[in-house]
Amino acid sequence: MSRITIDGIEIDAPEGWTVLETARFLGLEIPTLCYVEGLSPWGGCRLCTVEIGQGERTKLVTACTYPVEEGLVVRTATKRVVEARKLILELLIAQCPTSKRLQDLAAQMGVQEVRFKPKWENCIYCGLCVRMCEEQMMAKALGFVDRGNKLRISTPFDKSSEECRRCGGCMYICPACTLRCEGAQPEEVLCGRCESSTQPTCLEVHDNYACWMGLTGDCGTCVKEGAEK
Amino acid sequence: MANLRSINDLERLRKEIVKDRDPDRAVISISSATCGQARGSLDIVQAFEEAIGGHEDRISLRVTGCHGFCNAEPNVIIYPGEIFYQHLKPDDASRVVESVLKEEIVDNLVVSENGDRFVHLCEIPFYRSQVRAIMGDNPLIDPTRIDDYIAVGGYRMLGKIFEMEPEEVVEEIKRSGLRGRGGAGFSTGKKWEVTRQQPGPVKYIICNADEGDPGAYMDRSILESNPHSVIEGMILGAYAIGANEGWIYVRNEYPLAVKHIMLALEQAEGLGLLGESILGSGFSFDIKVARGAGAFVCGEETALIYSIEGLRGTPRQRPPFPAQRGLFGRPTNINNVETWANVPEILEKGADWFSGIGTKTSKGTKIFSLVGKIANTGLVEVPMGITLREVIFDVGGGAPGGKSVKAVQTGGPSGGCIPAELFGLPVDYESLTEAGSIMGSGGMIVMDENTCMVDVARYFTHFLQDESCGKCVTCREGTQRMYEILTDIVEGRGSEEDLDLLEQLGETVKDTSLCGLGQTAANPVLSTIEYFRDEYMAHIRDKKCPAGVCKALIQYTIDEEACTGCVLCKKNCPQEAILGEPKKLHTIIQEKCIKCGICHDLCKYDAVIIS
Amino acid sequence: MTEVAVAEASMVVEESIERQGEFLIAVLQDIQEHYNYLPEAALQEVAARLDIPLRDVYGVATFYRSFSLAPKGEHIVTVCLGTACHVRGGARIVEALARELEIEAGETTPDLEFTLETVNCLGCCAIGPIVVVDGEYHGEMTAQGAVNLVRKIQKAERV
């Protein structure tokens, strides 16, 4: 057990727990994107950033990967943390504005503007599909390719992989293409309408739901109170 | 060669080697590391071999690594007396040999500055303020011969430490105040101690020779010039830490360094200085070599370990630190080349000697590569705490061609640009960090009035967006976005809001990235904005590049007075954008000009002007 | 892309593993040295023999810049873009060579004669800008000088 303090609450956290696990145990909300229970933490999206330390020597670390250690002091929502998360989300949305998951997070966190030019990419390289494929499906068909600004996720030689069993796990877990908004491209990069009080774009533009899942709104994910079918 | 079974065997071998050397015989030491070879030192070696023919009894030749004074390459040092000749051509060899035989000086090969001549190495301004504790032996050692290293006292410290407890060795290094020479400057002794204290019988040490900072090449030079000093340092460290296996992770872009270190390892093994029960001490230690494959991020410890293990060089969360869980999951201590090379020196001369050099928090000497717009380019080894001004002007001789020095970039892509107003700063870890840069591995790139600081910042973000492993959003996207914004600025599309965004983005990238690469990636941008905001504003508001570098904001024109109509520019213009008849004024058609600058490079009359 | 005989690849890989053991990067370096690139057949073979998932072999082969998945040219022209070379005009040299060879940096001419590469520092900063042609270092280069080096090779080959 390590005695740590999160947002002023003292807790004895078992050895091997991460800051995120401990915070969630206490019911403290820390936004996450590339973290999913059941997959090993990766720490790529940086959204679960929290501030550790006291006095002048504090620093930001990702809650999902940082192990608890005796005497650790964590603050999950300082000004520095919140501002950093907002800018991270700006970077993510500019990369992949069609992701409903990102748009929802932006609405929740009050991101008001995106100052970077939209790239309209289909992937945010969070690696969830890679870990899903490896750790849950035991296939290891997908992997990271290249690096830096050329980083991609693909199968070897970009060919269909012999290891792939077409299980669809990668698509299921993907925050960029699941529930992707298929409505008309919004005027601005920042949409967030599904999560915020206004109607989803698809409702405004189409007579019916243009949900890619063909569920025509039955799943209810994008339906808010008052929205009409 | 004989297998040495005790320290006495080693001392006996040393005596034999020294005895065979005639102290009266002159030695011509030729600087022939990669830089030297690129300037033709191999031809010089051949010329000397021929010239010495018949005088072998009086003169011997030593092909060595780097003498440090790159600008003077190819150069030789003649012993006794340390007579220094620079810019040699193969034709000079016979004259130099003759002068040695007659004990004379060849006047026109001597270094001269502002009319003063400097015959001996110790008088030359470039060398005068240096304290060459690490580099000093280079001219005495042929790096392909272990005999030369043994002759100058090499491997002597093995005998000393095998009589000490490992903890005492750690304590001595701790007391010396040695800090890592590769980047963050963590206390070497403390790092050793933590690794030593880890449970379990298997531990590793690693020599980080993946010198990736562009503009820094001291590690290449040490490996090429004195590889055994690194090996000895590693043996001493391994004994102190309790490791029986070491790795050298060396950049594959350094073919000569790889060759020399492999050869040195083979020779050390051959003598029994590596392997089972070294010198009969019961302590066994082996070193393996892993060649890097071209990734800057592998200078980061966890990425380096992954790379040796055959994985992608993607850093991971620390803790656990490599000292706790490193190579193959075992406790691992990583130091860089220069740090290891300091170890034998410290143990020989003592912690007090070492901590007597430098400042309160930064001890010993540090090697810097002084490059860019500087007269005396080269590797300089100076005591910590010396001011930037002393390094750049006293040792480096300022910018060439009477230009004024504007700034110095230290610490590579993780560092920042320090303006000339702050050249009074002492060179130590804390002062450089406070000024928005870092010590890093010791690159100092000097910039003059013709260097555009916005362009420099853009250069580094371009470098980093490719070298980032791509794991963290902030580093991967952040460096790309910084590059994008800086590109807008240098192409005349920037706005003042862009500058604010750059600063905010820079702070976030610094704050939220996982490893050292990301955490320092914004330094070149933030430091140039802090100190050279006016240059940014010139690009943004006036759409001008004051240094005349940024293509979109400059124009090449031909000066009517200066142009002689020599047609050289016209002939070489790849766009046929230059009009003019022989002996008549030439003109550049702006619509066709792609600003490649070839005309400017070629013009002998300085008639092509950048405006 | 030229197809490499599977039988040959198998032999090259086997020999390399004998020399280098299970160290993936060293094995890949050997293969790169043999073929001057990493053929798909060889990577498949490496994955099978070292029992490493192919996606990891492929991931590593694309991560490190000294590996190439496409055949390189007969002559390799490398321009150093280290900081010291940059402030002395390294980028202009790359542009001039790209123009001359009609390829971008990182590419190979269609006739497989030249590959134009850039490198982030060769550690010869004192004599920059540096251009390396087939392993030979040329210091203090200019854009025109580098183009002349290439033309010299082209001329020599035509004779």
TrEMBL record, chain A:
Gene source species: candidate division TA06 bacterium DG_24
One of the protein's GO biological processes: ATP synthesis coupled electron transport
Keyword tRNA processing annotated: no
The organism's place on the tree of life at top rank: Bacteria
GO MF terms, alphabetically ordered: iron-sulfur cluster binding; metal ion binding; NADH dehydrogenase (ubiquinone) activity
Annotated 2Fe-2S ferredoxin-type domain residues: 2-80
Pfam family, one: Fer2_4
Domain 4Fe-4S ferredoxin-type, first and last residues per copy: 112-143, 155-184
Gene3D superfamilies according to UniProt: 3.10.20.740, 3.30.70.20
InterPro entries for this protein: 2Fe-2S_ferredoxin-like_sf (IPR036010), 2Fe-2S_ferredoxin-type (IPR001041), 4Fe4S_Fe-S-bd (IPR017896), 4Fe4S_Fe_S_CS (IPR017900), NADH_UbQ_OxRdtase_75kDa_su_CS (IPR000283)
Keyword terms, alphabetized: Iron, Iron-sulfur, Metal-binding
GO CC list: membrane
UniProt-recorded name of the protein: (2Fe-2S)-binding protein
TrEMBL record, chain B:
Keywords of this entry: 4Fe-4S, Iron, Iron-sulfur, Metal-binding
UniProt GO molecular function: 4 iron, 4 sulfur cluster binding; metal ion binding
Annotated ranges, domain 4Fe-4S ferredoxin-type: 554-583, 584-611
Pfam family, one: Complex1_51K
Gene3D superfamilies (UniProt xref): 3.10.20.600, 3.30.70.20, 6.10.250.1450, Glutaredoxin, NADH-ubiquinone oxidoreductase 51kDa subunit, NADH-ubiquinone oxidoreductase 51kDa subunit, iron-sulphur binding domain
PANTHER family, A to Z: NADH-QUINONE OXIDOREDUCTASE SUBUNIT F
Entry's family note: Belongs to the complex I 51 kDa subunit family.
UniProt protein name: NADH dehydrogenase
TrEMBL record, chain C:
A Pfam family hit: 2Fe-2S_thioredx
Cofactor binding note: Binds 1 [2Fe-2S] cluster.
UniProt cross-references to InterPro entries, sorted A to Z: NADP_DH_HndA-like, NuoE-like, NuoE_dom, NuoE_N, Thioredoxin-like_sf
Binding site for [2Fe-2S] cluster: 80, 85, 121, 125
An example Gene Ontology molecular-function term: metal ion binding
SUPFAM superfamilies: Thioredoxin-like
Taxonomy, superkingdom: Bacteria
CDD domains with a match to the protein in the record: TRX_Fd_NuoE
Cofactor entry: [2Fe-2S] cluster
Keyword terms, alphabetized: 2Fe-2S, Iron, Iron-sulfur, Metal-binding
Family: Belongs to the complex I 24 kDa subunit family.
Protein name listed in UniProt: NADH dehydrogenase
Organism: candidate division TA06 bacterium DG_24
Organism lineage string: Bacteria, Bacteria division TA06
